[in-house]
Write a structure and sequence with these properties.
This protein has eleven helices and ten strands. The chain has 351 residues and is α/β, with parallel strands linked by helices. The chain has two domains: 198 residues, 3-Layer(aba) Sandwich (Rossmann fold), CATH 3.40.50.1100; 97 residues, Rossmann fold (3-Layer(aba) Sandwich), CATH 3.40.50.1100. The protein has a six-stranded mixed beta sheet, sandwiched between helices. A four-stranded parallel beta sheet has the order 5-4-3-6, with helices on both faces. Helix 6 links the parallel strand 7 and strand 8. The longest helix is centred in the middle third of the chain and has 18 residues. It is globular and about 60 Å long.
């Protein structure tokens, strides 16, 4: 009989769910990666509310507490496509802050239901107003009511948490074998800006690949983002078009991402078709047992493209921002039936 898989606990007790954020695993792909490279994925769904945004949600609130910008019991308000809002709902529930989320009505229903389940109020804005619409709604609510506006798209706490956690985790996990490529997409830009600070210093030979939707190439266009005096976006970026990768690439270049553009925080930016990303998310689930959403699948699709041209023996890491369960009502799952198909019915009838 082979060795039985065993565990021994984490060796510590936690005073709050917020203490469990971070330290997500990097897992090797054994079936769908090209044979000549070692391809790993950083599975951010291991965070307590199942996405990379738990990190910035926690740090935005704790930074505001440290700086005296957030008073006990004060309402927090934020504009989000979902994952940041879910992370904030967790943090605010644990710390006792009321939370109001503004979100375009184009994002998945399960996201708004999760936030409400966690105690938040969700104010929907028309999809025709795009990301700018939900941003301005949050800004107006904050100004009218004296609420704390988290401002994930401009907050220094965003990239800072990825510098102090995500980037450090990557360097530590790959210290023995090295890392040749790190591939990520962007929403606010916090992940790439924060991690790049660490990789440029500690793994300077690692190539950083940034991915964005093929029909919303904001960074790839080279056109600058117009901003207001407070660094908020002055309007939609001219290169933006609606795309299927929820959580990626709002209709403006966030100030947090501008750091990477200005400081060469990435070596290459590549476009990806979100429908291809869905196919890779499906393969990742069915052939590797790893569940991710459209953004994770699209990042993986970009990494596969890079891997095909990478030297033999290259080591690559791909960010998987969240779980596929965030997308049950989206096109990612539209071909997955709820009822038995013919083969399943035949199995049911066979005994």
């Amino acid at each position: 009989m082979g060795n039985l898989y065993t565990t021994s606990g984490r060796g510590k007790l936690y005073d709050s769910v917020t203490e469990t954020v971070g330290d997500t695993p990097c897992v090797r792909l054994n079936h769908i990666a090209p044979d000549h490279v070692s391809l790993y994925v950083k599975v951010e769904s291991f965070n307590p509310l199942s996405s990379v945004k738990d990190r910035l949600a926690l740090n935005m609130i704790e930074a505001a507490e440290r700086e005296g910008l957030l008073s006990p019991g004060q309402t927090v308000v934020e504009a989000t496509s979902g994952n940041t809002g879910i992370g904030l709902a967790m943090v605010c529930a644990a710390k006792g802050y009321p939370l109001v989320i503004t979100m375009a009505d184009s994002f998945s229903i399960e996201r708004r239901r999760l936030m409400r389940f966690l105690g938040a109020k969700v104010v929907l804005t028309p999809r025709a107003e795009k990301g700018i619409g939900m941003y301005r709604k949050a800004q107006a609510l904050a100004e009218k009511n004296g609420w704390f506006f988290a401002r994930q798209f401009e907050s220094s706490a965003n990239a800072d948490i990825h510098e102090s956690t995500t980037g450090r985790e990557i360097v530590n996990d790959f210290k023995d074998i090295g890392l040749d490529y790190w591939v990520t997409g962007y929403g606010t830009g916090g992940t790439v800006s924060g991690v790049a600070r660490v990789l440029r210093k500690d793994l300077p030979n690692c190539k950083i690949i940034l991915s964005e939707p093929h029909n919303a190439r904001l960074v790839g266009s080279g056109e600058p983002q117009q901003r207001n005096a407070d660094d908020s976006p002055a309007g939609s970026h001219p290169a933006w078009e609606p795309h299927v990768i929820q959580g990626w690439t709002p209709d403006f270049i966030p100030k947090v991402l501008q750091e990477s553009i200005d400081n060469k925080g990435f070596d290459q930016v590549l476009p990806v078709d979100g429908t291809i990303g869905m196919q890779w998310a499906a393969r990742l689930a069915a052939e590797e047992g790893i569940l991710t959403g459209v953004s994770g699948g699209s990042t993986l699709a970009t990494a596969i493209e890079v891997a095909e041209q990478a030297p033999k023996g290259s080591v690559m890491l791909v960010m998987l921002p969240d779980t596929g369960e965030r997308y049950l009502s989206t096109p990612l799952f539209e071909t997955i039936p709820a009822e038995m198909d013919e083969e399943e019915q035949a199995l049911a009838d066979s005994v």
